[in-house]
Amino acid sequence: MAPSLLEKLNAKAKERELQKAEPTSKATKVLTAPGTGHAHLAPYRNVKEERENKKQRLQNRASSKTEAKGEASDGNDDEEDDEGELLVRASEDLVESREQQERAEDEDEDGEGDDDDDDGGGDDDDEHDNDVGDSDSLGDVGDTDESEEEEDEGDDAHNEEVAEEENDVDSEQGEAVDDDDDDEEEEQATIGKEQDRENAEDDSGGSDGCGDVAGDAQEDRSQTTHAAEIAAPNASNSEQPSKVTKKKKAGPTLNWMRVPIALGPEDRLPVEEVAGLDPRIARALKRQGMETLFPAQVGLWRESCAGAAEGRDLCVCAPTGSGKTLAYALPIAQGLSKCIFRRLRALVVLPTHDLVLQVIPTMPHTQRIFVL
Ligand SMILES: Nc1ncnc2c1ncn2[C@@H]1O[C@H](COP(=O)(O)OP(=O)(O)OP(=O)(O)O)[C@@H](O)[C@H]1O
User: Fold this and answer.
1) Which of 125-129, 175-179, 210-214, 342-346 has the lowest mean pLDDT?
2) Best mutation site among 300, 324, 352 for ligand 1 pocket (most ligand atoms within 8 Å of CB)
């Protein structure tokens, strides 16, 4: 059954309406929403005014933000100035994009309205739709303003937090510097006290009438310092100046302690080759089976009886059974061999009774033994 003329006309009218209702852009889609268009011009003017106000507000806000950041930095910080310029540019770009979008919406609205006027029906609904769309867009702008205000508040809060953190860091650094200064002062005070105490000790040692003891102590210090220099000459350069001053105060040193004489097994010497030994002593040694002198005996003889070593102190350090008893008994016997007086001429002091019993066989002609 063929469609009637009325049905064809209705179908064409629907197609035209569908063509008009087909969305080609976002603005067109908004314009097709249902509503009345009586308030088209008034909201359009309000949009213009609000657009200008909004632009001015954004610019003022950006400029105030830039000034606030500049004051917070207390100086001409180039980076913050750049950030302020970027914010101003961003706000201007946002306003321009909004304006372009709204202009596009207005142009589309005008085009649709003309078409609708030509069609002669549905004008009021479309115009009202445009108003609704504008109000929605303004609502969006309002939302944007609110969101920007929230962002600004967040930025301000963030700036305050950053400022507090910087203050905290500065205060902590200041405390750390104060702590370091306190530690250095304490160290200097301790060093000063030690130096004062050492100087007081040195002064008391020189003024209490114990000059020999003080001199020995100074000698020991100088010997220790000298030994340390010999052992590690480079290390003495890094010592504190106080130890260098000790070296200047040191007195004379004893050669027998500072320069020991080292002896070895090769230093054994036949009895008949011992220079200056009394022949009677040599014969007595051979009678007891002692054909050679041990190294400690040879060394002590050289330092006491041979040469110009008489009259000074000697210190012998040798292992057990190395002949130390005969080592000091030979110089005594050598000295007594030329003495005709019967009186106390030699004294041997031993720490234990057992050691006394060990010494008597080596010195059988000892007249008296005193036990304390
Ligand atoms: N030149 C020598 N030749 C042979 N024998 C010796 C000689 N000198 C010492 N002796 C013997 O060596 C032994 C040890 O000697 P002596 O006791 O003097 O050693 P010492 O170093 O004094 O020992 P200690 O450290 O225990 O006192 C003794 O029996 C002694 O008779």
Assistant:
1) 210-214
2) 324
Query: What is the Cα 154 distance to its own chain's centre?
Result: 37
The residue out of 170, 196, 222 marking a domain boundary is 170
**Structure tokens belonging to residue 283:** 């014969």
Domain assignment present for 114? yes
- Angstrom distance (rounded) from CA 32 to CA 21: 6
For residues 30 and 138, give the distance between their C-alpha atoms in angstroms, rounded to a whole number. Answer: 13
Q: Is residue 370 part of a domain?
A: no
Q: What is the pLDDT of residue 212?
A: 36
Which of 317, 320, 325 for a ligand 1 pocket mutation test, highest count of atoms within 8 Å of Cβ?
A: 325
Q: Which of 108, 106, 98, 103 is nearest to 141 (CA)?
A: 98
Q: Which helix (H) or strand (E) holds 270?
A: strand 269-270
Residue 364 belongs to a domain = no
Q: Residues 165, 263: one domain? A: no
Pick the last residue of a domain from 170, 198, 230.
170
The answer to whether 150 touches 57, Cβ cutoff 8 Å, is: no
d(CA 254, CA 250): 12
Q: Which residues contact 246 (CB under 8 A, 6 or more apart)?
A: 221, 222, 225
Q: Does the C-beta of 324 come closer than 6 Å to ligand 1?
A: yes
Residues of the chain with pLDDT > 70, as a percent, come to: 41
Is 291 within the bounds of a domain?
yes
Domain enclosing residue 290, as ranges: 258-339
CA 366 to ligand 1 centroid distance, Å: 18
Alpha-carbon gap, residue 309 to 302, rounded angstroms:
8
Residue 245 and residue 222 in contact, taking contact as beta carbons nearer than 8 Å = no
- Output the CA 321–ligand 1 centroid distance in Å: 5
- Which pLDDT value is given to residue 147? 42
Q: What percent of the chain has pLDDT over 90?
A: 8
Ligand 1 center–CA 286 separation, angstroms: 15
- Among 46-50, 70-74, 120-124, 197-201, the range scoring the smallest mean pLDDT is 120-124
The atom number, within ligand 1, closest to the CA of 291 reads: 3
Tally of domains in the chain: 2
